[in-house]
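Quick one: structure tokens for this chain, please?
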Amino acid sequence: MPQLDKKRLSERDICTRFLPPALVVSAYLIGSIPFSFLVVKLFSGKDVREHGSRNVGATNVARTAGKLPGVLALLLDIAKGWGAVAFAKTVVARQDWPFHIGMQPWQSREMWIALAGLIAVLAHMFPVWLRFHGGKGVATATGVYLALDPRVVAALLIVFVIVALVFRYISLASVVTAAAAPLLFQFLAQAPHWRVLMSIAIAFAIIAKHHENIARMARGTERKTGQKKKEEE
């Protein structure tokens, strides 16, 4: 019997040690689900990477397959960001989570939750299923932030709408909103510093993903909201 108890304890210890890497892998797998690609395939049979802006995101889905598929892709991308963080919260709250609260980074449960959110956004941008050609991460980041603090998302939505209405560039609104997120986590939500650092990393990633849009805005060739393709050409 003592040997059996030791074996069970050993198996439990192994499972406990695998929780952190399992959390990281799960966050990537959740974030990498290519909903925009799948929705367009389902509704029209097209490859969203070969149409419109070729971006694997809700805006291009709407342009390629219609408004309903675009809204569906948007909601699903938001949901997977929320799901990755919700899953991380559940895992780190387990009694068998291997790291006790302490001063080291890996002992902070907030660090693991923030890391899961960051990984989910990066997974959306670089999904292994599409040879690392993914979207720009705005919707997935929204889901991540929604799971962390809905007040931040509400404030970001106001920023997005104002910039979009004034300048009529969705891409500019996305970039400005991404850049505003760390400030809102810091000063509005007074969030743990891990969330602020996560939102800074996400902001840099989103802005980098919009480099082509930024270049087109500088040249004056970026399409504005409501502007038809002929006008752009």
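The longest helix spans residues 67-92.
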